[in-house]
Structure formats: structure tokens, C-alpha cells
């Protein structure tokens, strides 16, 4: 095959400017998405290195390499970078931007300039987050949750980190707003709501959460800043405030934020499984409604972060019930994925392996979430390594693996070239093995009482910390192999052709990589997205 | 190779308005967070809130309410004027709106100035000797009105930009969605004040 597709693609042609400005000033959704992807990959590596530093310190009991204060700063920075710069924008800003308009048959998002503006707000937030590490009296040490009253008292540079989270939230709101309007107004003729592919559907549900939940944390973070600067005392009991109120306001956003992370991940998986089973998705509408149900109910479960913080028994009972209810639509999705594979012609390719790893990790993460969601067991494991293991299984094992699956699935579409399958499978095995070795032991010592956020521990937990350390190394090796494979293949891989996986959604009907305009003629849709014959 | 292909210019007024309404939702939720905090502390410290609220200048507050209501009317009239194609009237009405917004800020300056003269401002020594509920009330008063004043300033800038775009003919009778969205934003700013005014000044 020839490389004319690549020469004609958005990778070579800007919209208005040429060269580097053609990227930095581009309003092309695909270029903006790629810029997000490069930024997010860099921050993922930075956040990962900080995580590695913590594992190194925890390798042996006692203080070895960094002080307790540095350790506090490291887990705070690790959290801020991973949550606000990597995971929350992650799938929506990268693959949502690059592929959602194509999948609904549009030439761009509804507001291309606003899209570019969101990217620069993201960059501003990233600069603030990094500046918070170096300016002022030391890196913030509050944890990414900024709990008051400590966050209003500590001398470290909390304001810059809080401001970064606020600014990044604004970027997230604008992206969500853009996606909602795009999906409402720009679907191709004939694409009714229930003929829309499921990744755009998951982005739609996600966008509503971004829009409705983020402003609350925005104002709460501003209150923290006002409290630090002007001693207003919203959350400081010495000044009449209530620290529990901060926790409520914080989790009203930050729990739905978990669904901002995981819903697009579920959407990606829902695209990959039919393609590699060559079979229509099982229960299309059940998946749509479960996405919407997760978005709706997920809004009302924030209290399960606060069982031990001081709430009435009625409130705790209620939040626990809702937490169990929100597990139902998640489980529905898993059943649908499995049923889609049943009697399909399974094609074992790297994206499918990453997807299988996702489903496996997500089930462990989800079921341990129920342990944390029930009142009695949560008292036992609250603030232990069990919680750390649980949310890493959801965020990394879930969203992270979905991100990797998405890269391997859409890589030939984005770059027009194919990566080395064997290396991709090896990297998948390393990443999955390393991940399991890293986090699974934390469940066990968490159950036994190892607290989270401690830089020292009793000798009986040492075995697990050693396992985790080596897990982290295996994981890092896997990531390096993967990055090597992808970076090399983006420039030199074999030409992939428009539809290497025999996918049925619209992005596979156009050239790889797509041209600037995506479609020469906007397609007319007559049937559902996964009609495999 | 590096020739550039221009994106098809795509205009969809319904989409623009939908985007604005969604943005207004987020703004309401932003202030909604503050209303929750206000409600919580009012229920914890009803007496302190009562005493503190009595010390606000209801007269200036009322004047400002009237100013904002009138400005909302003039901006709505300017939208209608542009639709009928009367450019000079549109510009006059927009200028009036911007002037009223400025007047609001001048009043706010004097209102805050009077409070600051009495040493009631966030972080002052007198504030820290007040009862906890009164401290919270004044804290909320400054925080909410300052955030609202910031919205007034942003609204003024938006309307000013639209003013010059109408003047130079880039926003016209047939392409007026920008003015409509600017007007919507201004109504939001007005609406938030309509809630702040009774919460801070009238309920005593």
C-alpha cells in the first residue's frame, strides 16, 4: 500500500497555519486530541515516577530515602497529577476529541475554537500544578483531597495546587459542554439517538456529570483559597466553620468524577468487544441506559467516602444503599460484554487483550468497592491500603487499561500505521502482570491494618511492600516496551489501511489517518452501529 | 505538501444558544454551592446572622437591585432592536446597559467602603472578635458579592466586545446570536443578584 493516505491526512495538513503553529493554533478536533494525548502521556510518566519513589521508600520499614514530609508532598503531587491532569481529562479529551465527531459523522465538534481554548486552560492548570511544587514554602502536603482544616492551616503551597484543580475543572466543564452540544446537533442525518455508537453515548453521559458536578468543587476550592487569604472561616472550626461541610462539598464532585473517569472507559470497551468478536453488541439499549443510570445515581453516593467522618446513621444507611444500587448498572455492562463475546468469532489482537485485562481488573475493583460501600466492613478497612488497592484497580486497572486498549485499537486510525503485534502483546502481559503484583498484595495488608498514606510500617507488612515494589518495576518495563513500540511504529510502522480490524463504526469507513475534513460527504445512516453480517 | 485546507465554516445558532444555556447551568451551580453553605450556617447561627444582616445598607442594596433590573430590560430591548434592524438604537441601549453596570459597581464601591471604614472586612482584627456566626455572615457577604461583582465585570467586557462588533458590522440583524448570548449572560448576572439581595439584605 502507498502512503498517500498519510500525506493527505490531518497529520500533514493544518487548518489555518503551518508547521508548529498549525498544531498549537489548530481548531481541528483530531490535532487538539493528539496534543492532549502527548501532554497526558508525559504527565502519566511523571506521576508514575512519583509513585515509584513512594514504592522505593516503602521497600523497607523505617526511613530510607525521603523524609516523612517529602513523602507527604510526593503522594499529594502524585494524586494531583494523576487525578486532575491524567485520568479526568484522559479518555474524554483524547479519544473523545479525536474520534467522537467522526463516530457520529461530523466534521468537527460544535465549538472548535472553544475546544482549543479548553486545551489552553488545561495547559494553564498544568503549569499551576507544577508551579505549586516549586513556588512558596514547599510542595503541598494535604493529599489530593485538600481536606480542611489542614489545607487551610498548612504553610505549604496549597493555593497554587487548589487553583490548578479549579482551572482544570473549568477546562473539563468546557469540554463537556462542547460534547453535549456536538452530540445533540451534529449527528449525521439518519443517526437517531439509538443508532449512535456506544462510545459517544458514554461521553454524553460523562459530559453531563462534568457539567453538573464540577462547578460545586470549583466554588469549594475558591472557598479554601478565600479562607487561606482572608480568614473567612468557612471550614475552620476555630472560626465557626465546619470541616465536614468541606468533605461533603468536595465529594459531591469528586465521587461523580470517578464516573467521569470510568464511563468513557466502559464506552471504549464497548466499542472494542464487538469489533474483535465480529458480532453485534448484546443489549445495546441496556448499555445506554446503564450509562445514564450510572451518571444519575453516581451523583448521589458521595457520602460513602465519609462513613467514619461523622454522619447520621440514616444518612450512612441511605448512602450505602445507593452505593449498592450504582453497582447494578456497572454489572449489567459486564454481563453485556461477556454475552457479546459468546459465540462470536474472537480475534485475539492486542486491543482485545488489554480489554480482557480491563474486565478482569474492573471486576476486582468493583467487587472490593462493595466491601467499602457496606457500612460494617468499611469501618474496618477505611483509610487502609485496601482503599488504595481498590481505587487503583478502578482508576488504573480500569480507566488506565481502557486507555491503553483505546490507543492500541485506534492507533492505526490515528497514524495510519500498524504497531508490532508481538511487542504489543508482550507489553500488555508485562503491564498486567506488574499491575497485579503491585496492587493485589495491598488488598491483603490493607485488610490486616496497613494504613494508607503512611511512609513507615510494621515489619509484618514488609513482604507485601516488597512484592509491590517488584510489581512496580515489571509495570515500568511494560510501559517502556509499549511506548517504544508505539513511538517507533507511529513513524515507521507498516501502512494499516482504512479498516484493519474490520470494524463497523463510522471511523473505519474513512481513510487512515482521516483527512482534515474527516468526510468528503457526510454519510447518511440507515442502520445501527454494530451490524456484523 | 504543507498547503492548508480551510475547515468548512459551520454556523448553527441553535447550538450556540444551547451552549450558552448549559454554561448558565454551570454558573448557577457555582453559586448554588454558596447558597448551600449560606443555608447551613444560617441554620446553625440564626441569631448571629440576624444581627449581622441588620448592619447591611439595605438602601444601597435596593438601588443596585433597581439598577440591575433596568439594565436587564435595556439589554433585552437591544436584542429586539437589532432584530428589527435598528442599529443605532441597539448601540444606544447596549451603552446604557454598560453604563448601568458601571453604576452598580460604583455603588458597590461605596457600600464596601463604608463597611471597611467600620473595620468590617475579611481578615480585619475587629472581624475576628465578632461572634462566629457574624464572622461567617460577613465572610459570605464579601465572598458572594465579590464573586458576583466579578461576574458583572465579565459581563461588561462581553457586552463591550459585542458593542464594537455591532458597530463594525460583524454582528448584524441576520447574525445576532452573539448579542442574544451576551444578553442571556447578563440576565444570569441579574438573576443571581435577585437571589443574593433578599438572602443578604432583606432576611433579617
Structure description:
- The complex is a heterodimer of chains A (533) and B (204).
- Chain A is mostly helical and 533 residues long.
- Chain A has a single domain, classed as Cytochrome c oxidase-like, subunit I domain (Cytochrome C Oxidase, Chain A, Up-down Bundle).
- Chain A is globular and about 65 Å long.
- The N terminus of chain B is likely disordered.
- Chain B is built from 7 helices and no strands.
- Chain B has a single domain, classed as Cytochrome c oxidase, subunit III, four-helix bundle (Four Helix Bundle (Hemerythrin (Met), subunit A)), CATH 1.20.120.
- With 204 residues, chain B is mainly α.
- The N and C termini of chain B lie far apart (71 Å).
- The chains are: A mainly alpha (533), B mainly alpha (204).
- At the A-B interface, helix 8 and helix 9 of A face helix 1 and helix 6 of B.
In short:
The complex is a heterodimer of chains A (533) and B (204). By secondary structure, chain A is mostly helical.
Amino acid at each position: 500500500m502507498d502512503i498517500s493516505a498519510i500525506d493527505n491526512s490531518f497529520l500533514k495538513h493544518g487548518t489555518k497555519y503551518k508547521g508548529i503553529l498549525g498544531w498549537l493554533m489548530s481548531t481541528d478536533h483530531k490535532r487538539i486530541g493528539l496534543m492532549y494525548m502527548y501532554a497526558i502521556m508525559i504527565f502519566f510518566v511523571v506521576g508514575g515516577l512519583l509513585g515509584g519513589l513512594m514504592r522505593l521508600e516503602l521497600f523497607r520499614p523505617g526511613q530510607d530515602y525521603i523524609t516523612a514530609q517529602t513523602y507527604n508532598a510526593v503522594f499529594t503531587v502524585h494524586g494531583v497529577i494523576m487525578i486532575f491532569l491524567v485520568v479526568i481529562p484522559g479518555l474524554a479529551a483524547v479519544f473523545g476529541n479525536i474520534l467522537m465527531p467522526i463516530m457520529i459523522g461530523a466534521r468537527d465538534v460544535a465549538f472548535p475554537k472553544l475546544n482549543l481554548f479548553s486545551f489552553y486552560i488545561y495547559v494553564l492548570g498544568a503549569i499551576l500544578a507544577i508551579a505549586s511544587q516549586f513556588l512558596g514554602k514547599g510542595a503541598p502536603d494535604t493529599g489530593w483531597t485538600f481536606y480542611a482544616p489542614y489545607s487551610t492551616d498548612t504553610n505549604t503551597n496549597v493555593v497554587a495546587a487548589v487553583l490548578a484543580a479549579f482551572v482544570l475543572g473549568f477546562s473539563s466543564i468546557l469540554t463537556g459542554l462542547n460534547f453535549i452540544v456536538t452530540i445533540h446537533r451534529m449527528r449525521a442525518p439518519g443517526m437517531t439517538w439509538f443508532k449512535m455508537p456506544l462510545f459517544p453515548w458514554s461521553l454524553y453521559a460523562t459530559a453531563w456529570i462534568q457539567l453538573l458536578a464540577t462547578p460545586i468543587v470549583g466554588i469549594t476550592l475558591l472557598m479554601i483559597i478565600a479562607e487561606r487569604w482572608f480568614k473567612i472561616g468557612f471550614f475552620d472550626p476555630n472560626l465557626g466553620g465546619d470541616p465536614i461541610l468541606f468533605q461533603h462539598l468536595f465529594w459531591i464532585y469528586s465521587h461523580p468524577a470517578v464516573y467521569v473517569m470510568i464511563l468513557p472507559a466502559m464506552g471504549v470497551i464497548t466499542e472494542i468487544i464487538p469489533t474483535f468478536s465480529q458480532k453485534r453488541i448484546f443489549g445495546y439499549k441496556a448499555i445506554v441506559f446503564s450509562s445514564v443510570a450510572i451518571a444519575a445515581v453516581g451523583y448521589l453516593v458521595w457520602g460513602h467516602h465519609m462513613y467514619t467522618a461523622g454522619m447520621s446513621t440514616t444518612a450512612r444507611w441511605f448512602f450505602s444503599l445507593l452505593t449498592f444500587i450504582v453497582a447494578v448498572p456497572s454489572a449489567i455492562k459486564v454481563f453485556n460484554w461477556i454475552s457479546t463475546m459468546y459465540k462470536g468469532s474472537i480475534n485475539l489482537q492486542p486491543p482485545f487483550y488489554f480489554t480482557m485485562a480491563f474486565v478482569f481488573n474492573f471486576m476486582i475493583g468493583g467487587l472490593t468497592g462493595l466491601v467499602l460501600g457496606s457500612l460494617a466492613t468499611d469501618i474496618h478497612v477505611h483509610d487502609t491500603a485496601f482503599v488504595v488497592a481498590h481505587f487503583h484497580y478502578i482508576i488504573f486497572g480500569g480507566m488506565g487499561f481502557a486507555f491503553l486498549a483505546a490507543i492500541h485499537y485506534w492507533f492505526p486510525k490515528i497514524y495510519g500505521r500498524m504497531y508490532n503485534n508481538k511487542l504489543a502483546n508482550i507489553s500488555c502481559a508485562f503491564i498486567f502482570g506488574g499491575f497485579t503484583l503491585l496492587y493485589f498484595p495491598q488488598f491483603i495488608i490493607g485488610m490486616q491494618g496497613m494504613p494508607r498514606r503512611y511512609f513507615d510500617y510494621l515489619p509484618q507488612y514488609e513482604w507485601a511492600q516488597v512484592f509491590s515494589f517488584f510489581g512496580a518495576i515489571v509495570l515500568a518495563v511494560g510501559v517502556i516496551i509499549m511506548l517504544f513500540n508505539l513511538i517507533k511504529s507511529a513513524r515507521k510502522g507498516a501502512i494499516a489501511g482504512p479498516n484493519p480490524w474490520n470494524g463497523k463504526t463510522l471511523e473505519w469507513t474513512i481513510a487512515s489517518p482521516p483527512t482534515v475534513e474527516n468526510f468528503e460527504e457526510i454519510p447518511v445512516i440507515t442502520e445501527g452501529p454494530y451490524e456484523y453480517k | 505538501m504543507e498547503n492548508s485546507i480551510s475547515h468548512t465554516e459551520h454556523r448553527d445558532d441553535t447550538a450556540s444558544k444551547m451552549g450558552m444555556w448549559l454554561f448558565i447551568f454551570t454558573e448557577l451551580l457555582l453559586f448554588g454551592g454558596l447558597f448551600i453553605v449560606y443555608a447551613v450556617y444560617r441554620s446553625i447561627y440564626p441569631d448571629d446572622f440576624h444581627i449581622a444582616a441588620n448592619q447591611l445598607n439595605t438602601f444601597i442594596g435596593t438601588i443596585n437591585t433597581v439598577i440591575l433590573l433596568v439594565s436587564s430590560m435595556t439589554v433585552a430591548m437591544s436584542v429586539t432592536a437589532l432584530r428589527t434592524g435598528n442599529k443605532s438604537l441597539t448601540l444606544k441601549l447596549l451603552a446604557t446597559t454598560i453604563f448601568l453596570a458601571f453604576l452598580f459597581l460604583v455603588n458597590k464601591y461605596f457600600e464596601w467602603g463604608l463597611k471597611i471604614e467600620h473595620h468590617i472586612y475579611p481578615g480585619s482584627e475587629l472581624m475576628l472578635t465578632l461572634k462566629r456566626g457574624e464572622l461567617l455572615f460577613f465572610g459570605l457577604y464579601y465572598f458572594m458579592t465579590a464573586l458576583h461583582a466579578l461576574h458583572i465585570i465579565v459581563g461588561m467586557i462581553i457586552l463591550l466586545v459585542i458593542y464594537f462588533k455591532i458597530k463594525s458590522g460583524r454582528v448584524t440583524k441576520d447574525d445576532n446570536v452573539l448579542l442574544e448570548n451576551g444578553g442571556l449572560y447578563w440576565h444570569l448576572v441579574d438573576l443571581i443578584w435577585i437571589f443574593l439581595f433578599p438572602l443578604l439584605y432583606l432576611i433579617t
